[in-house]
Amino acid sequence: MRALIRRSDPKTLTLDVNHPSPSPADHPQYYIIRTKATALTRGELTWPEPLIPDILIPGFDLAGEVLSAPTTPGKHAFKAGDEVYALTTFTWKGNAREISVGHEDELALKPKNASWEEAASVPLSALSAYEALFVHANLKLSKDSNNQITRVLVTAASGGVGIWGVQLAHEAGAEVVGTCGTSNMDFVKSLGADTVLDYKETDVLDWVGEDIEKRAFDVILDCIGGQTLISAWKCARRGGKVISVAEPPDPKKPTKGVAEGVEGIWFIDKANGVALGEVTSLIERRKCKPVVDSVYRLE
């Protein structure tokens, strides 16, 4: 089969047209899946994992068709012919290959109203936002759930994780503020943001400072890091949470100006087929939508 191979020394990305194809005999506990599309996470091609011989193929988002179910005894949730998608494990080969593998815990049925490319754009980004909001921030995925958390800030709201942060927080009934560039303001508004700030024109810390009682946030989902993450700490209200997918927030905590009880949270996203199934439902009910910027052939 064809597969993309990434190596770090020297730094190369090549197409192997004769790469070994995974088989049920070699992977009895896994589904064998024909890859229809994969996605590369920002920065992925600089990750150190390809130094490990078994992790040379990039692309941890997967959308494809099941060729065969696990050969281990027992009932399996998916069957040959099912259209599925997943975030697959970071400790194994990625999915930039014609035939890939997926564990049942990773898989969910692909949204019926999403293309292969749209489906492949979803898992890592959506699950990152899902875990941040519904696991670490304790929001509930229902506007009728009386969420105690009411104000959410999403930085880089037009980026991969930001898109899902805005949509999922909106679906949870939160008041959502997003930051982005000038050209993306209308787009972020269309995702469900109540207020959109152009980071080139408005410093979010200054904006919050104009009326801190009203504008401070219960939850901040930071997708940028650096100075933005430093400022985020001062934008959280008492007992709030600063959750970052860009870098650990605690080393960026200022020594002054942070409200009492603000917590910094850092996590590495995990595969979660059950949560991805909830995302499928949201997409099929047109409560959320995937967004694709560009599509490339494997070559």
Automatic annotation (TrEMBL):
<feature type="region of interest" description="Disordered">
    <location>
        <begin position="1"/>
        <end position="22"/>
    </location>
</feature>
<dbReference type="InterPro" id="IPR036291">
    <property type="entry name" value="NAD(P)-bd_dom_sf"/>
</dbReference>
<dbReference type="InterPro" id="IPR013149">
    <property type="entry name" value="ADH-like_C"/>
</dbReference>
<feature type="domain" description="Enoyl reductase (ER)">
    <location>
        <begin position="8"/>
        <end position="298"/>
    </location>
</feature>
<dbReference type="Pfam" id="PF00107">
    <property type="entry name" value="ADH_zinc_N"/>
</dbReference>
<protein>
    <submittedName>
        <fullName>Alcohol dehydrogenase</fullName>
    </submittedName>
</protein>
<feature type="compositionally biased region" description="Basic and acidic residues">
    <location>
        <begin position="1"/>
        <end position="10"/>
    </location>
</feature>
<dbReference type="GO" id="GO:0016491">
    <property type="term" value="F:oxidoreductase activity"/>
</dbReference>
<dbReference type="InterPro" id="IPR011032">
    <property type="entry name" value="GroES-like_sf"/>
</dbReference>
<dbReference type="GO" id="GO:0005739">
    <property type="term" value="C:mitochondrion"/>
</dbReference>
<dbReference type="InterPro" id="IPR020843">
    <property type="entry name" value="ER"/>
</dbReference>
<dbReference type="InterPro" id="IPR050700">
    <property type="entry name" value="YIM1/Zinc_Alcohol_DH_Fams"/>
</dbReference>
